[in-house]
Amino acid sequence: MDFAALGVWGLFLSAFISSTLAPGGSEVVLAYLVNQAEIPSGLLLSIATVGNTLGALTTWLLGLWAARRYPLENLHDGKKRKAVQAVRRFGVPILLLSWLPIVGDGFCFAAGWLRMPFLASLLAIALGKLGRYAAIVYLFS
């Protein structure tokens, strides 16, 4: 069995899952793999960023879908309402913080709900995720 390939796929899945509405720990997986030094750090950084970004875009798409079924006026959940208000106030740049625990997923969901421009959202999400993972690679190299 090729353990390097297993590590890369494990990192991708961990990054994807932790960026959806489910909890995860991709930072720990990335730190471990970087510390092992068997796989180039640049490849690990890319895999984690792509996986986490795709997970966030899944949440963005769920927000878009939810907006079609449930108008904002029917939103009673205080946390979701606050996320929508924050995204309305700060716009796409708030998605640079999509990597933050707890609120980051809400920002992505709210951005989809509010139909923020897809490409701008993708860019902001990816840059935020890249910055967070780059810091982890730097710290554990």
Features:
single chain; 141 residues; mainly alpha; 6 helices; 73% helix
Structure description:
With 141 residues, this protein is mostly helical. It has one domain. Helices cover 73% and strands 0% of the residues. The protein contains six helices and no strands. The protein has helices spanning 3-18, 26-36, 41-69, 78-90, 103-113, 118-140. Helix 1 packs parallel to helix 3, helix 3 packs across helix 5 (103-113) and helix 3 (41-69) runs antiparallel to helix 6. The longest helix has 29 residues, at 41-69. It starts with a helix and ends with a helix. The model has no long low-confidence stretch (mean pLDDT 90).
Helix content: over 70%
**Overall body shape:** elongated
Count of DSSP helices?
6
Task: Round the mean pLDDT to the nearest integer and report it.
Answer: 90
Number of domains: 1
Query: In terms of structural class, how would the helical and strand content be classed?
Result: mainly alpha
Oligomer: single chain
Contiguous low-pLDDT stretches (5 residues minimum) are none
What is the total tally of β strands?
A: 0
User: Main β-sheet: number of strands, strand sense, barrel status?
Assistant: none
Question: N-to-C SSE series?
Answer: HHHHHH
Q: In percent, how much strand structure appears in the residues?
A: under 5%
Q: What is the radius of gyration computed over CA atoms, rounded to a whole number of angstroms?
A: 16 Å
Q: Termini distance?
A: 25 Å
